[in-house]
Design a protein that fits this description.
Number of domains: 1
Mean pLDDT: 93
Shape: globular
Radius of gyration: 17 Å
Oligomer: single chain
Low-confidence stretches: none
Number of strands: 3
Order of helices and strands: HEHHHEHEH
Length: 138
């Protein structure tokens, strides 16, 4: 496993690349970028085949907590706006009830909110709006 310094660098790089691409960054994508979470396992979790996301992550809870801490640290240092996102199970069409997905084994609300918080770059969004406005003026 990579050392903590390398983890911090990879977390920050993932956050930077996500913001650059879409104006927002998500902890789940950070986990995938660090190869801690496989895309196939993420999909299995989203479809309700895995009871909680941490079960299919390839590092222990302490390392996950370390990664999540540095997601928040990067977001704070870069003035990213936290935005809670409700993660619901995929594939439930029709009259079936909405199923809220769990991230952690114990379902602690603080941990759940941490995973479900996306971080938005207001600067990136304002720049996109400015560019779109310039395009419509021409």
């Amino acid at each position: 496993m990579i050392n903590n310094g390398e983890v911090i660098g990879k977390v920050h790089n993932s956050m930077y690349q996500q913001i650059k691409k879409s104006g927002m960054a998500t902890p789940v994508q950070v986990l995938m970028d660090l190869c801690v979470l496989a895309a196939a396992d993420y999909d299995r979790w989203r479809f309700g085949k895995v009871d909680y996301l941490e079960r299919v992550c390839t590092v222990n809870p302490r390392k996950l907590s370390f990664i999540m801490k540095h997601v928040r640290t990067y977001a704070n240092k870069n003035s990213l706006k936290p935005s809670f996102t409700f993660y619901k199970q995929w594939g439930l069409k029709g009259k079936k009830p909405i199923v809220k997905l769990r991230f952690s084994k114990n379902g602690d609300e603080r941990i759940e909110r941490s995973y479900a918080t996306h971080y938005i770059s207001i600067k990136h969004i304002e720049e996109k709006k400015r560019l779109a406005a310039n395009d419509t003026e021409e």
